[in-house]
Design brief:
five-stranded mixed β-sheet; Trna Endonuclease, Chain: A, domain 1; alpha/beta; single chain; 35% helix
Length: 160
């Protein structure tokens, strides 16, 4: 379940989705500082789009966006991951080389459940690895702060 946030997407409303969202935001900010990288929390969009607030923000190199980080908590049904698709299409349309890193938790965060089935075509190298331009980590139980930090840092190090 989500609520609108001023036309810029939706935000977490369940305790588990709020925890994932908060942790991804916190770790992304910390990693940006430790690696001295430009990091923004909002993409304003274009005249044709509404803009977005990716959960983990957007990382930039040479003033060009290179990584978007999203967090999705979903049960076996719902539309959290479908909203990921509109964000993905918006960025890939304007920045074809941009990378995506998605953290998914909940019962739907399994390769055979709704998140895995939805992300399969955009993640040809599978899940829980950093290969390719799209990386998605799936864990029903969620992620520790340490796990998030290692994954985000390692993904960024492949881009710098």
């Amino acid at each position: 379940m989500s609520k609108s946030k001023g036309g810029c997407g939706a935000f977490a409303t369940t305790p588990k989705s709020k925890k994932l969202d908060t942790n991804v935001k916190q770790v992304s900010r910390n990693v940006a500082k430790s690696l001295c990288l430009k990091h923004k929390t909002k993409y304003v969009g274009t005249a044709e789009s509404k803009g977005y607030n990716p959960d983990g923000g957007i990382f930039y190199l040479d003033n060009k966006p290179v990584l978007v980080i999203e967090a999705k908590h979903q049960g076996r049904s719902g539309n959290a991951i479908e909203r990921w698709g509109s964000l993905y299409l918006e960025f890939k349309t304007h920045y074809p080389d941009i990378h995506f890193l998605t953290f998914a938790s909940g019962l739907g965060a399994h390769p055979t459940e709704v998140i895995g089935r939805t992300l399969r075509t955009t993640h040809p190298d599978g899940f829980n690895n950093l290969t390719g331009s799209n990386s998605a980590y799936l864990s029903e139980e969620g992620f520790t702060l340490e796990q998030l930090e290692v994954i985000i840092t390692n993904k960024l190090l492949t881009l710098v």
